Amino acid sequence: MKRIAIIGGGISGLSAAYTIEQKRQSGTPVEYVLFESSPRLGGVLVTDRVDGCLVEAGPDSFLTEKTWAADLCGKIGLGDQLIGSNDSERKTYIVVNGKLVVMPDGLMFMVPTKIMPTVFSPLFSVRTKLRMAAEWFHPPRKGSEDETVAQMVERHYGSEMVDLLADPLLSGVYGGEASELSVRAVLPRFADMESKHGSLGRAMLGLRKEARRKMGATTKVPARPLFSSLKDGMQQMVTALAARLDGRALKTSAPVQSVIRQDNGWTVCAGYKTDHFDAVIIATPAHAASDVLQSADENLSRDLGEIKYSSSVTVTLGYDEKVRRSIPPGFGFLVPRSAGHRMLAATFVHNKFPHRAPENRALVRCFLGGARDEQILESSEKEILGIVRAELRQIVGIAFDAEPLFASVYKWKSAMAQYSVGHLERLQRIESLSRKLPGLALAGNGYYGIGVPDCVRSGAEAAGKILTEMAMWSAAEPSGKPSSSL
Ligand SMILES: Cc1cc2nc3c(=O)[nH]c(=O)nc-3n(C[C@H](O)[C@H](O)[C@H](O)COP(=O)(O)OP(=O)(O)OC[C@H]3O[C@@H](n4cnc5c(N)ncnc54)[C@H](O)[C@@H]3O)c2cc1C
């Protein structure tokens, strides 16, 4: 019987455990123990119910385009529980001069693909609009060295685009800054387009035309929603996964201090107990992986520790019908740094998804923190609520003078990985160092994608890598095949 330890019970670790459990149930002589330091499974996937509303503390959805999360939901019996975002309501605002200005139609990230909405948008200055027109003739980039997203966006569209769009969009996804994040790690498609076509606008339009041509050639398929979630919230995934795992193998309140390579396997030290395994999957944030691997390999531990993380705070406020009527249509707004607020973004949850709030409730979720405001973690919940309420009043309007019916504040310390310039080179070093440690696999949001679907994939791939090393994985298996050697 082969034994595998999984460290970390977030969605990455649970996805790894599910892959191994499937093998175990099909009669393969393998077992696993999952160690989770906190008293509950799921990591940052936490859903609460308050006053008839569904409150997401961490992620509220995932990108539909990345199918790994939805595929896993299908396998664990949640296929009929998947819901899509209300895309007919899709509209995002940017805070400019204290007002909400709608993002023009046709913007793909920050690349304009429709001329008229951009020309008439009050969001951009004439100077930026002229830059957008000139961008059409941008030459391909020579050289392939990494750079920040801000450097790339500025070269194409100027600094206003970095401030109004690139920076706030990256704050929303990574809790990071355009002037720090690596374009090759965060926007690899854009780096590729630039080197092949020069102009991002022309390249994007070409892709859209190609997609439309393909869609026209096939039978009419309704457009998929941009975001997917679950009727009962993201935690539904955690509950369903845990129910399909071997209950005896799930150890909560079990922090792992170290893993040491010993006797052709791995000794895992958790509290006062040690246990021996043939392999270990570390599915924690990279900084925690760095700590547990310190005795196993100092160099690997150092490289893992260099992957930066940022912290964030989410605040969900529930309001009555009157406030709901005063909230504009759309998914919410992004706050550029130049607006001078502490809030990074807010989602009008009742507009974005069905099944989140009754008709007589408004649900507004606000984001704070990120790489440039770690101090927010030191503020009390009362102080954070004060900030959020004052800023909502300034940005969305007077109706926010009203006392919220409820407010939930969640703090996430060092939970969002920052893929800074040189990230891909660092991953190459990590891969080559881990190759020297048989029976070790890494999974989680610190490596090849921060979103829930990428974490699901990384867990399945880590399990696939270990099972392959144990000659328990056939090349023909449909999922969980390792596509990178991490
Ligand atoms: C506020 C917020 C909003 C987000 N929104 C979205 C979104 O809308 N859509 C999206 O796709 N993604 C979103 N993300 C990103 C995504 O949710 C995460 O990247 C992903 O869930 C991380 O999963 P994970 O299992 O890799 O890590 P985690 O969820 O961090 O889980 C790691 C687990 O390891 C445990 N652990 C750590 N050290 C040890 C140890 N030594 N021993 C044992 N256990 C240990 C931790 O307790 C934790 O439970 C969001 C993230 C945050 C924080």
Would you give an account of this structure?
The chain is of the alpha+beta class and 486 residues long. The chain has 17 helices and 22 strands. A hairpin with a 2-residue loop joins strand 3 (47-50) and strand 4 (53-56). Helix 12 packs antiparallel against helix 16 (423-435). The two termini are 24 Å apart. It binds flavin-adenine dinucleotide.
**SSE class:** alpha+beta
Shape: globular
Helix content bin: 25-40%
List the uncertain runs: none
Total DSSP E strands:
22
Rg from Cα: 23 Å
How would you write the strand order of the largest sheet? Answer: 8-7-18-19-20-17-21
Largest sheet, in brief, is:
7 strands, mixed
Distance between the termini: 24 Å
Tally of alpha and pi helices = 17
Mean of residue pLDDT?
A: 93
Distinct compounds present: flavin-adenine dinucleotide
Percent of residues in beta strands? 15-25%
